[in-house]
Amino acid sequence: MWPSILRLGKTAGIVLAIALAVTLYKAFAPAHAGGSGLFPWDKADHFSAFFVLTGLAMVALPRQPLWRIAVALSILGAAIELIQGLPFVGRDCDFWDWVAEMVAVSAVYAVVLAAKMRRTLAGETAAETGRLTREAAE
Questions:
Q1: 3-class SS at 16?
Q2: pLDDT tens by residue, 4-53
Q3: What residue ranges do the domains of the chain occupy?
């Protein structure tokens, strides 16, 4: 079981690096070179990019506290917007793009916290889950 989980984390790390590269390319390429987004509404593109980045980061970096991942992505989103505001970049800085990105980070964070709360309320701990799995296998 553990080797497959470790492979998942490594794969998520590779996919995270690719997703981050695509996100940065789309953020800094001239508006016409980046092509149109996946959605007709620009904020949905920002939301979806950071939703994916957050989910991948949480899987790829399991030892990092969730709040640290959220803060890092918040800083990344703000930095992207500030850099886009520089005259030589040829893009526009939009506060609402950053808000859409933070809503995405918060949405993933909320789902993960809800899942943790559900396990806690159900009385399951990681040790109990492992014990139950071993007992079921016997």
A1: helix
A2: 555 677 888 899 999 999 999 988 887 765 556 666 678 999 999 999 99
A3: 2-137
